[in-house]
Write a structure and sequence with these properties.
mainly alpha, 6 strands, Hypothetical protein af1432, two-stranded antiparallel ribbon
Length: 685
């Protein structure tokens, strides 16, 4: 492709991207409402897409933050102090008990003063102290009972202080531990109340408020809600007619971009532009890494651009009815037919994603569309012999409907949703493909490319050129039919377009209609018009049939791809018979061998697999017919020799055929001849 065409394609592509940006922006940009907080709405307003309710999300987050309970942690210092308090209390009481008797073992005269001093000291050490009954019990019990009570009180304090206890749980824990003491030491039950009073008086809760942990928990609760925002589903009523717009309602309108200014419009346009441009860059990278013969034709390029934009424009209006308008299959059908399955899928997927904003980024739309695109491209882009418009229409439609049913089943949608989705999907997919098939003749007229439908039309026996070939050059007609069978089998073997090879072969030798009798297959026995011509005149007539064929193809408006085959099926080779004859004549006259360039066909070497396959099939059919070979081994050897000759003459350099393809072509042609040359039963006369 020349630089002018490249520049033209770049400019058109940029303009196309800009146009798509404007179309998507126009379709995506929601209707604006002139409402504010406190105003009254005169209509029902629904969510045109699913969105995050920022107002309610923040409200729930703040509520969660303030609902966090205060966090209390265990204080080691307070725990140790409580245990020390129990030790200190019993130590002070023990000191008083030791002063109960004097040095002679008699009751102390100042005992009352001693008890009073003990009470005073305990009151100074502890904010609360037991009542007199507890003191009387502690002072009057035996030493063994006192020591046991002391030891068990300290043990209970240590156990309780290992936990995080507050005021309520502390008293509960003391009661529980004292109850265990009563069960284990039933003979000291009379002293258990004293133990309970001492522990309750001198121990304090070790649970303290942790402001840092509480603040962190509150913040985590806030963040958790904000990270799981409240989503409002598409179709939810935001405001009813007659409602006074609250701050919450107004914020919902803002989130939906239903209340906006010129600045917000610019932001929406910028986002859409960035979205489309990224997809366009991805597409350009893909095409930078691929090669395609058809896409270089500017006419098909313009046709593809137009058909690419049509579904996007249609979606602007059709998306209002349903999010399941699968109109992208219109372009998929056309692109896959002319460019193949791979290009059809890639181009259509990018187009579908470009249209996604128009369908409010509905996940069901993208799922069903992807299924439809893959099935449609696979059927429309196949290169085998068969082509059935009914399967192209029905199979993608049924696949899309099945995808809808599966999607709705997964998400447990109600039955009404099933029915509506199935109807919109089936109808839109069906009509998209039917319209694409219907518009193909217009595309072909504009772009001069060939579709399977066109190929089938050209292959009909009633075609004017084929009728002329049959009537005026029956030998060439028979030769072309055999070439078509060989080319069809070879193309099928290597994955080329078999239908194209078959039909193009019908027309590859139409240039012989200008001088049919000068070609051996059309000559009667005993008559050869070349006998009265010089070798150079004969060569000019023979080699002119490619040039004449191109002229005739233009006259009958054959596709450009056919014209390429006509021009390339002999490449730049030369008629070996006439060149050899010229060499013999020159040698007999003592002249140097003639220049081989003067004998070559005025064409180009094959530029595609299909064109190269037809060249090989044409050469093999002519040689095998001329040599009247019937042995399979001899036929295979001749086929290999002829192909090697083409390779040696650099005729297959631009064809894209590999050595593996060559081997498959040899076997395919051999199988065709094996089927046509088998022995038949001898019938009686």
């Amino acid at each position: 492709m020349n630089k002018a065409s490249t520049f033209q394609k770049v400019v058109v592509s940029i303009l196309c991207v800009a146009l798509i940006v404007l179309i998507v922006f126009y379709g995506y940009r929601p209707v604006s409402y002139d409402l504010s907080v406190g105003s009254v709405s005169n209509r029902d307003i629904y969510a045109q897409r699913s969105f995050i309710d920022s107002y309610q999300t923040v409200y729930e987050a703040v509520l969660a933050k303030n609902s966090v309970s205060p966090i209390f942690i265990r204080s080691d210092e307070i725990s140790e102090q409580s245990i020390s308090n129990v030790e200190l209390f019993y130590t002070i009481v023990k000191d008083a008990r030791n002063q109960r008797l004097d040095s002679f073992g008699m009751p102390s005269d100042d005992w009352d003063q001693t008890v009073q001093n003990m009470k005073t000291q305990l009151a100074q050490e502890f904010p609360t102290v037991p009542d007199d009954s507890t003191y009387d019990a502690l002072l009057s019990m035996s030493s063994s009972a006192f020591n046991l009570l002391w030891d068990k009180s300290v043990s209970i304090a240590e156990i309780i202080m290992m936990d995080n206890v507050n005021t309520d749980s502390l008293n509960t824990a003391i009661d529980f531990r004292v109850s265990q003491f009563e069960e284990n030491y039933s003979e000291f039950v009379a002293y258990s109340q004293a133990m309970r009073d001492v522990l309750s008086s001198v121990m304090t809760p070790n649970s303290v408020f942790d402001s840092d942990a509480t603040d962190e928990a509150s913040e985590n609760a806030y963040i958790t809600v904000m990270n799981s925002p409240i989503t409002v589903d598409k179709g939810t009523k935001i405001i009813s007619s007659g409602d006074v717009v609250t701050e919450h309602m107004y914020q919902c309108l803002v989130d939906l971009e239903l209340v906006r200014s010129d600045t917000s419009d610019i932001l929406i346009l910028a986002r859409i532009a960035a979205y489309i441009v990224i997809l366009a860059v991805v597409l350009s990278v893909y095409y930078k890494r691929r090669s395609s013969r058809t896409i270089t034709d500017m006419r098909i390029f313009y046709a593809l651009v137009i058909t690419y934009i049509i579904p996007i424009v249609a979606s602007v209006y059709l998306s209002e009815f349903s999010a399941l308008m699968i109109v992208s299959l219109f372009f998929t059908t056309i692109a896959s037919t002319y460019l193949g399955t791979r290009d059809g899928i890639v181009l259509s997927l990018v187009e579908a994603i470009m249209m996604w904003p128009l369908y409010t980024f509905d996940s069901e739309y993208i799922f069903v569309t992807v299924v439809g695109i893959v099935i449609t491209a696979t059927i429309a882009g196949r290169v085998n012999r068969s082509y059935n418009s009914a399967s192209l229409i029905i199979m993608p439609s049924l696949s899309c409907i099945l995808a809808v049913i599966i999607y709705n089943a997964i998400f447990s949608e109600p039955l009404s949703g099933y029915i509506e989705s199935v109807v919109w999907t089936g109808v839109s997919a069906l009509l998209s493909i039917i319209l694409a098939i219907g518009i193909m003749p217009i595309v072909e007229l504009f772009s001069r490319v060939v579709s399977p439908v066109k190929l089938l039309e050209l292959s009909q026996p009633g075609n004017p050129l084929l009728k002329r070939l049959f009537m005026e050059a029956p030998g060439t007609y028979s030769h072309s039919m055999m070439v078509s069978s060989l080319a069809d089998a070879a193309a099928d073997a290597v994955g080329a377009d078999a239908l194209f090879c078959r039909v193009a072969s019908y027309f590859h030798d139409i240039g012989k209609l200008e001088n049919p009798v000068f070609f051996t297959e059309n000559q009667s026995e005993g008559y050869n018009p070349h006998d009265g011509l010089t070798v150079y005149d004969s060569v000019n007539i023979i080699t002119a049939h490619t040039v004449d064929g191109v002229k005739l193809a233009h006259k009958y408006h054959l596709p450009d791809s056919f014209i390429e085959v006509i021009e390339e099926h002999h490449g730049t080779t030369y008629p070996g018979y006439f060149y050899h004859k010229a060499c013999m004549e020159a040698e007999s006259k003592g002249l140097p061998a003639p220049d081989v360039e003067e004998f070559k066909y005025k064409g180009r070497i094959p530029s595609s697999k299909e064109s190269a396959i037809i060249m090989i099939a044409d050469t093999c059919e002519a040689a095998i017919r001329s040599n009247k070979l019937t042995d399979a081994t001899e036929i295979e050897n001749l086929i290999r020799k002829l192909i090697k000759s083409k390779i040696d003459q650099d005729q297959l350099n631009n064809s894209g055929l590999s050595f593996d393809d060559i081997e498959k072509i040899v076997n395919a042609i051999k199988r065709v001849y094996a089927g046509s040359l088998h022995e038949r039963i001898q019938y009686p006369s």
